[in-house]
Amino acid sequence: MIERYFRLAENHTTVRQEMLGGLTTFLTMAYIVMVNPQILAQAGMPVEGVVFATCLSAAVATLVMGLYANYPIALAPGMSLNAYFTYSVCLNMHVPWRTALGVVFLSGVLFLLLTITRVREQIVNGMPDCLKHSTATGIGFFIAFVGLRNAKLVVANAATFVGLGNFADKEVQTACFGIVLTLFLMARKVNGAILIGIVGTALLGMLRGISQWPSAIFSLPHPSSTFLQLDLRGAIHLGFLEILFAFLFVDLFDNVGTLVGVCEQGGFIKDGKIPRVGRALVADATGTIFGAVAGTSTVTSYIESVAGIAAGARTGLGNMVVAALFLGAMFSSPLATAIPGYATAPALILVGALMTQSIAHIAWADFSEAVPAFIAMLATPLTFSIATGISLGLISYTVVKIAAGKAREINLLVWILTVLFILRYVYLAAA
């Protein structure tokens, strides 16, 4: 039954491979169970309730992606979006967190409507090929940079913006051990190399006393403090433009970029399009709605899914493992959050390196294709935003095609998106 439903043989995978890939994906993104509540707590939200909401929304959205779209792409509350929720909406705009949750709920409903009407699907499939490939490469640079930062191999520097970390730091030393271990295992084509690298690095860190062993295995969830606490009436009073620019825009293009990047890495793109993309886009809309009801910010696809794909996941069966582990994390959050950032850093760095192979598909000899691709892949890590990378890439694509006398190659969707992106930057500058 599992073989028939998930089409394992057709996708050249096995149950064991999917289990391993799902576990790897969960380990690389388990940090969200701890980090998301910490960020939203600064907006005044109760930590215990947000832990429950984080796990529930991630499990529901990941199940929808796996069962409905049959992709090994996990979802959870987005890191850039929870920061936007807390710092921009709640703290800067002085919007109460209950009202902000109402905005998230309405944006989730709008996501669903745009998906049903196939608007979001047209956006994904209408992106120029050069930007699809460069987005995947840019995300590779982005997650590798995140990994380097988590490992403290790259640190802030007042003179040069970034600099090399301190190798006297035990976390840096342990992360370097993890990189070497994972590199060796991957080079030897050892099954589960990424997973072994994560666990081995975490264990070494615990043995060296630089991270704590799990304080407990089980803990009861506390949903009541955030469950059904959203304020829809207050959200409606904020106005449509606030909803559009504060949540819809950021999540729409972050999710599109992530889907393109993950599908490019997994080899799921066929004839320049993502099969079943409409079904895939239903997942984050559903997760966002559930998340707002439970008490968390917008849910989106996670780029860490490429770690699971690199470990062997090819179908939605891998997502069943991720969803089950998130549900279990409701009751065992101390265990789920015991994996420190420096332990997953080697996986992010090396998976990022694997993702850059998409750069070979860009037509570098064509100036009108090369420049937008370069801008998109450069802007993604430097601005720490997938959405910004895509937007600047699309704007430059339109400009350079016009300059090269190739305006006919610009499809209607790209024209519309270019105008919307320019208006977005004008709106943000005036805000």
Q: Can you put this structure into words, describing what you see?
A:
It is a single chain. This protein is mainly alpha-helical and 431 residues long. It has 2 domains: 2-131 and 212-338, no CATH class; 361-430, no CATH class. Helix content is 68%, strand content 3%. The chain has helices at 2-6, 15-29, 32-41, 47-69, 79-92, 97-116, 119-126, 129-150, 170-187, 193-207, 232-237, 240-266, 277-294, 305-310, 317-329, 333-336, 341-355, 367-383, 386-403, 412-430; strands spanning 75-77, 154-157, 161-164, 299-301. A two-stranded antiparallel ribbon has the order 1-4. The protein has a two-stranded antiparallel ribbon with strand order 2-3. A hairpin with a 3-residue loop joins strand 2 and strand 3 (161-164). Helix 4 packs antiparallel against helix 13 (277-294) and helix 6 runs antiparallel to helix 13. The longest helix has 27 residues, at 240-266. The mean pLDDT is 83.
